[in-house]
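Below is a filled-in request sheet from our internal design queue. Each sheet records the structural input a requester submitted and the sequence that came back. We keep these sheets so that new team members can see what a complete request looks like end to end.

REQUESTER: design group, bay 2
PRIORITY: normal
MODE: inverse folding
CHAIN LENGTH: 241
BACKBONE (tokenized):
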């Protein structure tokens, strides 16, 4: 799993989306709206990071901040229905009873962002560097996982069909390295989670629309968070600064 010094590996592209959205809004909304969009997208990143760490409390706090801070200030009237969708998804994550429910809400939130961008005619143009495989190791395997999930997140948030497919395809090819810890039950649970992550690549590949992809993305976040939380330590990306 991730060491604490590598928590921020992956998901950097989500923050890049902040700049792209700001560029879209600057031509049609005031500085207040642009600032708000920066905040919202940063909070969405924080939410996903917390779910991936398996930190339910942090995730719910991030989701509540998004729901409470949602505002139409400076946005065009057409944005109202999309912000309602964003708020609904954020509330679902903020009130989720467990990691699975919070992850589902986080997935819905990413999709709601993408629906707003597409609905207003301003889908984000985002890209990613190619995945570079390293020598077999836990750290490199986690970097590969992070790259896959980042691509899926961008695919939802853009929305971008190509990025979603890239993420799904990389998940399908994810290397699975069996761990052998002192606790055989823990080893089995971690290895099962690794297999589940790879199997979800097939499900992601078969998801053809935003609704289906929303569900799969939530399942993937839940799988990441569950695996990281098994070891009783904090693994996964830290909150963005």
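RETURNED SEQUENCE:
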């Amino acid at each position: 799993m991730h060491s604490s010094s590598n928590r921020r590996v992956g998901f950097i592209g989500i923050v890049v989306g902040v700049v792209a959205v700001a560029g879209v809004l600057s031509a049609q909304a005031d500085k207040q709206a642009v600032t708000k969009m920066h905040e919202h997208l940063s909070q969405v990143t924080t939410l996903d990071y917390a779910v991936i760490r398996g930190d339910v409390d942090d995730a719910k706090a991030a989701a509540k901040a998004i729901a409470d801070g949602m505002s139409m200030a400076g946005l065009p009237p057409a944005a109202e229905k999309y912000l309602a969708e964003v708020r609904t998804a954020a509330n679902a994550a903020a009130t989720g009873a467990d990691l699975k429910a919070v992850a589902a809400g986080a997935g819905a939130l990413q999709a709601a962002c993408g629906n707003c961008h597409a609905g207003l005619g301003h889908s984000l143009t985002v890209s990613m560097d190619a995945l570079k495989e390293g020598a077999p190791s836990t750290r490199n395997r986690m970097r590969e996982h992070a790259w896959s999930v980042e691509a899926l997140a961008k695919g939802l948030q853009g929305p971008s069909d190509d990025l979603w497919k890239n993420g799904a395809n990389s998940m399908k090819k994810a290397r699975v390295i069996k761990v052998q810890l002192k606790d055989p039950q823990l080893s089995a649970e971690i290895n099962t989670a690794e297999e589940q992550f790879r199997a979800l690549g097939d499900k992601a590949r078969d998801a053809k629309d935003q609704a289906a992809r929303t569900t799969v993305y939530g399942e993937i976040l839940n799988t990441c968070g569950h695996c990281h939380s098994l070891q009783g330590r904090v693994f996964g990306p830290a909150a963005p600064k």
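SHEET NOTES:
- The mean pLDDT is 81.
- The longest helix spans residues 31-53.
FILED BY: M.R.
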